[in-house]
Every structure is written in C-alpha cells, then in structure tokens.
Write a structure and sequence with these properties.
This protein is an all-alpha fold. Helix content is about 75%, strand content about 0%. It has a domain of about 45 residues.
Length: about 70
C-alpha cells in the first residue's frame, strides 16, 4: 500500500489571477451597481492597484525566468 503524501503547490500565477479577478470584478460590479456613490474613487484606486500589481508580478516573474535561463 502506497501511503506517500504528495504536497501540491498552487502556481503563483493562479493565485494572483484569482486575486486580480476578485478585486477588479468586485470593483466593476460595485461601480455598475451604484454609479453616484461618493466612495467610487476608492474603487478606481483598487482597480488601478490591481492592474499595477498584476503588471508588476508579471514583469518580476518574467525577469526572474530570464535570469534563471541565462
């Protein structure tokens, strides 16, 4: 009987994609739901931060990949 434990790690890109989708999707939903809310600026900041974090993560991971292959 094989009782070997296998730890599966979720790839970072999947985690970041889910976080991005949650923040961006929630912001879009709330903006569409209440267009006249005085707190909409927070949602725009959250959307911008989600995009910036996604681009930064993509840039850092591609840079790390290029350094490891060299």
């Amino acid at each position: 009987m094989n009782t070997e434990k296998k730890n599966k790690q979720i790839p970072n890109m999947v985690v970041y994609a889910v976080l991005f989708a949650m923040i961006f999707g929630t912001s879009i939903w709330l903006l569409a739901f209440d267009k006249e809310s005085p707190t909409n600026w927070i949602l725009y900041v959250a959307m911008g931060a989600a995009v910036a974090a996604g681009l930064l993560k993509l840039a850092l991971s591609s840079r790390k990949g290029r350094q490891q292959s060299a």
